[in-house]
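Entry for nicotinamide-adenine-dinucleotide complex. Fields follow.
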Amino acid sequence: MLYIGRQFLGGELLPSLCPQRTVLIADVALKMLYAEKLAERLKADLLCIPSGEMAKTFETRSLIEQFLLRGGYGRDTTMVALGGGTTTDVVGFVASTYLRGVPLVLVPTTLLGMVDAAIGGKTAINTEFGKNLLGTFYQPKAIVVDLDLLKTLPEAEKRNGLAEIFKMGLIARPDFFELEFEELVRASIQQKIAIVEQDPQEKGLRRILNFGHTIGHALETISHYQMPHGLCVAMGCVIESHLSMCLGYLSKGDFKRIHSLYEPFQLPAQYNRKDLLAAMGTDKKRAEGHIRFVLIDQIGRAIPFEGHYCRPVAVEELEKTLDWMEATYH
Ligand SMILES: NC(=O)c1ccc[n+]([C@@H]2O[C@H](COP(=O)([O-])OP(=O)(O)OC[C@H]3O[C@@H](n4cnc5c(N)ncnc54)[C@H](O)[C@@H]3O)[C@@H](O)[C@H]2O)c1
């Protein structure tokens, strides 16, 4: 069940979703801001976990599992995750395997969490071999999107969420670039749900959500996760739009518009061509020696490629785009 609104943290909704024993697992940065008060309201035990990608480790996973096992939490326990995408990813992962799965309520607190990470049932932790390589598909019992939580979110974090919203615009909704902020958030969530409902296990259509991520994940890997996810995705979207143009699918005019839409992101240069190609070698979308890319043929449309929604691209076909990238982001 999805709830989008305001003032949910102080209202009756969350207690009604947690009828029995409840454990609240929160990003430690939100402890004093929201978590302590919410734990009191839910009569829940509170466990704080590290902020950022440090949350998505074996260590945090184990910290949560030990907490649950030591506390003797049973199958009727509701786990509530309060935090951004890193928190909801790791808490979701544990909730999906603890006692073979316990009820999960997600309360995303970042824009990226609200429009993307908390929607669609994917959970994950990172390993030294790459990002999100361990994970499950697990649908939460409820997702509670409280837009008031964005008031304390730093601007840079809002830009991360905006990058995912823009991506959605590029692959599925040309009208996105005209909408007001709150409308945009709601529409983005609904659009992701619509895609996931058609393809919950990522067998085809859902792959379009990976637009910008082949390059984006590689950038994240080579920056050792120092570069924010959203910025990597924003850069990935521009670069993969360029690739769509070079391969003859996207018009020059559309690419120009996309490039200018991303100007506010102030995309940084933090890559090395060789490392980037090597990092793409571990991308999950790689097949038969080629790197597979989601491509667009206009703003608002990912190309279906007979239901595969991605296309293998040889390294040589990437050259022009990598040249352009080097000339543009230096
Ligand atoms: N499961 C999925 O489908 C999916 C989809 C997209 C992204 N993700 C994952 O999401 C993660 C990124 O999520 P994120 O961008 O939300 O990062 P995040 O969880 O690290 O949060 C970003 C920062 O904002 C702070 N913060 C969070 N909420 C706040 C608030 N309301 N007020 C003030 N500060 C706040 C956090 O402490 C942190 O420092 C990545 O690991 C990515 O892989 C998952």
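NOTE: The chain has two domains: 2-152, 157-328.
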